[in-house]
Amino acid sequence: MADVGVFGGTFNPIHNGHLHLCQTLMQKAGLKKVLLMPVNTPPHKIAHGLLDNDTRLQMCRLAVHDQALIQVSDLECRRQGKSYTVDTIDALQALYPNDRLVLIMGSDMYLTLPEWKDYQRLVKSCKIIAAAREEHLGQSLQKMQAHILSIGGDTQVYPMDVLPISSTQIRRMLEEKDPSAANYLPKAVYAYILQHKLYQKGE
Ligand code: ATP
Fold first, then answer.
1. In CA terms, which of 70, 75, 128, 138 is 20 to 30 Å from 58?
2. Ligand 1 and 10: CB distance under 6 A
3. What is the rounded distance in angstroms from the CA atom of residue 101 to the CA atom of residue 148?
């Protein structure tokens, strides 16, 4: 039995902070591989700047084209509608019957876990790991870790140097044609965004 990571997000667009989290946790937690899982875009969200599935999937593929241990999964995008993580884990467990699934996330998502659908079942059907900056390994994260353990889950919070960047900040830079966006994006993703004129004002 090996551990397979699952890293979900909107990835609108995927950036170096996501990759850094993924690579660091993969190494710290000894994962065999990681599945990058972009969420499905409901049609009404496209109007609000969330790019369509194919575009976000393509950027994810470009971001990891040179990383053998990180694969892009279109499972949630293909399923359409809203995907709940607990259902995604069920579906993946059928695909990886001999492996343990390990959900990867940032500390902001970790703290929202009790709001997730069937979270008590979710924490028992996979391991959950999160990354937090050392100075943020505060009471709230420790409390959440203790809570998950108390209801029978397996979890771990790892200290790491999280890159202070978000997709929202990058979209803003791209809208303003600020070339420093390139500092936070994998090269091929930045080139793709420029080529297809993504995240421009009024689009
Ligand atoms: P947005 O700004 O559009 O909300 P985001 O940059 O926060 O996007 P998401 O796709 O929403 O990215 O996040 C997916 C996952 O990546 C979440 O678990 C989140 O905690 C984590 N994450 C986001 N940014 C970083 C970062 N800079 N370093 C480490 N983890 C991150």
1. 128
2. yes
3. 16
DSSP, res 39: P
Bond preceding residue 13 cis, omega within 30 of 0: yes
39/56 Cα distance (integer angstroms): 9
Mutation probe of ligand 1 site: the residue of 10, 14, 18, 160 with most atoms within 8 A of C-beta: 18
106 CA: nearest ligand 1 atom? 20
Q: What is the largest CA-CA distance in the chain?
A: 50
Distance from residue 106's CA to the centre of ligand 1 (Å): 7
Distance in Å, CA 167 to ligand 1 centroid: 7
Model confidence pLDDT, tens digit, residues 157-202: 998 888 989 999 999 999 999 999 999 999 999 999 999 999 997 6
Q: Which residue has the higher pLDDT, 143 or 201?
A: 143
Strands (E), the chain: 3-9, 33-38, 70-72, 100-106, 127-132, 154-159
Rounded to whole angstroms, the Cα distance separating 12 from 84 reads 19
Q: Are 75 and 64 in contact (CB under 8 A)?
A: no
